[in-house]
Amino acid sequence: GKKAIIVGSGIAGLAASIRLSLKGYQVSVYEANSYPGGKLSEIKIDGYRFDAGPSLFTLPEQVEELFELAGKNTKDYFQYKRLAINCNYFWEDGTRLSAHSDVDKFADEVNKQLGEPKENTKKALKKSAYIYQHLAPLFMHRSLHKWSTWFNKKAFRSYLRMGKLGLFSTMNQANSLQFHHPKLVQLFNRYATYNGSDPYQTPATLNIIPHLEFNRGAYFPVKGMHDITSSLYGLAKELGVSFNFNQPVEKILVKNNRAIGIQTPSGDYFSDLVINNMDMVTAYKTILKEEVQPKRLLKQPKSSSALIFYWGIKKNFPELDLHNILFSNDYEKEFKTIFDKRDVYKDPTVYINITSIHKEDDAPDGCMNWFTMINVPNNQGQDWDKIKSKAKEFIIKKINNTLKTNIEPLIEVEHILDPIGIETKTSSANGALYGNSSNNKYAAFLRHPNYSSKINKLFFCGGSVHPGGGIPLCLLSAKIMADMIPNA
Ligand code: FAD
Hints:
Layout (H helix, E strand, L loop, with lengths): L2 E5 L3 H12 L3 E5 L11 E4 L2 E4 L5 E2 L2 H9 L4 H4 L2 E3 L2 E6 L5 E5 L2 H12 L3 H23 L6 H4 L2 H7 L11 H8 L3 H8 L19 H8 L1 E4 L4 H13 L3 E3 L6 E5 L2 E7 L2 E4 L2 E4 L3 H6 L9 H4 L6 E9 L9 E4 L4 H9 L10 E5 L13 E9 L7 H20 L7 E7 L1 H8 L31 E3 L10 H13 L5
Parallel strand pairs: 1-2, 1-14, 2-10, 7-16, 14-20
Antiparallel strand pairs: 3-4, 5-9, 6-9, 7-8, 11-12, 12-13, 15-18, 15-19, 16-17, 17-18
Helix pairs in contact: 1-11, 1-17, 4-5, 5-10, 8-9
Bound molecules: flavin-adenine dinucleotide (FAD).
The site of flavin-adenine dinucleotide (FAD) has 37 residues, from helix 1, strand 15, helix 16 and helix 17.
């Protein structure tokens, strides 16, 4: 039968392996790490378990679709539940707000805590749904690089609405018009960080994101985020995909403008097609360095990165939920510091994700596993040791001031991941979390397509190519790509 080789077992690589296997290919995955999942992995230290990277799970149907395609019952492999509270928000002045997933309850809570008319919140979420309905079919589910995407009735209808879809104002401008209360503007501006962008630069089109969280729902996999990786890896193996770990691919072999296989430390392997799931920028610098470079795409600005303190905390905090945000007092300055000065801000917005609330065995009794994260610039050669030590100080101060506690003596376990760590663990260019940033309104058009226009039989999937980063989009990239490939 026909053979397919996949470079990398990130979430998109796993999805691609399943889809191609179901198309009749004999699929082999080559992975540099000793484990699958790339950014979607886990860490275990002294009785604590942490999801290493992604913590927010939306559009679970993208995962379900893979089990269904294989004729399986998703529940037998992978289970998840919808969250009643999407996130708890905290400000230093004592304001607190629970974002109920139920829109009516959320609008009520916003009204109670901030005095914002209920109608404003509801209207904003309707607007978000409107953007989604018009743009998702165009930008998320299809290749942007095929004429058929652009020349059809649905597409033309969307062109007429570009103004309404927010292309001509920034997210912050749109939110400042939608809401009276600056704290609500801040809360909605935060959605820009879901793909590593800056709300003061990114087009208001990204107001598409709250729709996913409120109208479509935020979910928690009952065995933790890492179960997305484990269950898909299990399915792929069941379908006969072969996985080769500790195999850093050195080169994609090309002959007569056609990808014919790969070179690895253990030898050359040949196939009918090659799929690259490794970060596109790094791939062109390494395994495709002898090929024609897509220069314009390679120099696009990258999304932000993250600095994470995985902390075992020997105390219970009943006011905290799965997702918690402790907001900065000056959001605009924070983003200026991250994106313009490429540094960390002294009063950072701190995100704390605690899976042990839903999955008790993730922490010892009476303790919590805190995934404590701030947004930081991507790696441009800054002095990360210096940044890490001052960031830790800033974070602790923020937590203490906001939760009126002294967190430092409660930290019994610590592990740190910085942009350099993200870069070395997953080959992600500059340690960016989501590939290119979306700060530019043309960003959607400046991602690499899901195929090579220069080399036949070479395809791309993952967070650095179309349609972009984050689990749902990575899974869609594998789908768009597989749809271009005929059955074996
Ligand atoms: P990656 O995960 O980037 O994996 C690429 C794989 O390729 C790696 O396993 C790597 O080892 C392998 N590889 C690289 N080079 C080679 C080579 N030469 N040979 C063989 N193998 C190679 N997304 C969300 O949806 N929600 C979130 O809440 C969220 N939060 C995040 C928080 C953090 C801290 C991080 C890091 C990311 C977060 N993301 C989130 C983004 C999400 O994790 C990524 O978009 C997604 O996991 C990327 O998947 P991918 O398929 O592109 O592959």
